[in-house]
Amino acid sequence: MIGKPYLLDTGLTSRSISFENPTGAPGEGGKAASNLGPGRKGSPMRQIDPGQTVQLCDIEGLGTIRHIWLTTIQEPVAQRAMVVRAWWDGQEHPSIECPVGDFCGFAHGKIMPYHSAVHSVGPTGGRNIWLPMPFVKRAKFSFTNEGEKAVPLFYQIDYTIGDNHPDDVGRLHVLFRRENPTTTKEDFELLPERKNKGRFIGSVIGIRNLHPDQWWGEGEVKVYMDGDTEFPTICGTGSEDYVGLAWGIQQTPFFYNGCSLDKNNFISMYRWHLPDPIAWRERARITIQQISWKNGLAETEDDWSCATFWYEPTPSAPLPEMPDLQARTADVWHD
Question: I need a surface site. Which of 10, 78, 308, 309 has the fewest CB within 10 A?
Answer without folding.
Answer: 10
